Known about the structure:
By secondary structure, the chain is an alpha+beta fold.
Amino acid sequence: MKIAGWNCRGMGNGPAxxxxxxxxxxxxxxxxxxxxxxxxxxxMKHIKWLLGMRNMVKESVGKSGGLALSWKEDGD
Length: 76
């Protein structure tokens, strides 16, 4: 099992999303933890879709802070 964590300092811009996708491609984690996402639930649902991870738990207050935890399904 591989776990990756990243303080992304905001997922609201293209370079951050590309960096996350590069991390995922390079490391192929089973569990991915993101801190300081600084974006709303709709944006994180889109990120989850881009990552191809079916599960995500996300918490933030408005556009400050934010933690996201995503994981692959068993057997992936």
